[in-house]
Amino acid sequence: MIDKPYASNESGLVLATNLIMLLLVTLVATSLYQNSFVETKMANQQLLKLQSKNNADYAYSNARLFIMDLIKSNADLNIARNGYFPYAFDLSINDINWQDNNSVISSINNSKYVVIYLGQHVKSYGSNNGIEHQLFKIVVFNQLGQGSQHIEQSFFAVPVA
User: Which of 123, 139, 133 is nearest to 71 (CA)?
Assistant: First the structure.
């Protein structure tokens, strides 16, 4: 009968130890979950960035083909078309209405592009130095996840035949 107070103290000590261990395991599990959640979000952002890059590259490729088709068909480059504007329009990136399908050309996965003809210029750098070129500006629009948008531009020069 004398052992009972000690048994009660021992069971209380075991209970307190188990509660502390449970608390530690819970804290570790919560920390691991938060880390994996952050890593998953980072991986999703990287995937979204890669998809955006691929979509933009595809749209640039389509725009270059569009330009080459215009040149091969001897089209008048000073006449506006859907997604194509001569320099006389003085179009800036902020003026483009990306929702208007009559003023942009759609590509895959919500990518759209506009081609702006900048006229003939003599190239003063690189391998074709001193040769006259048709110069175009290609503006690409990408609709990303969560409502964000990405717009980029590049120049494309075609030697005059």
Answer: 133
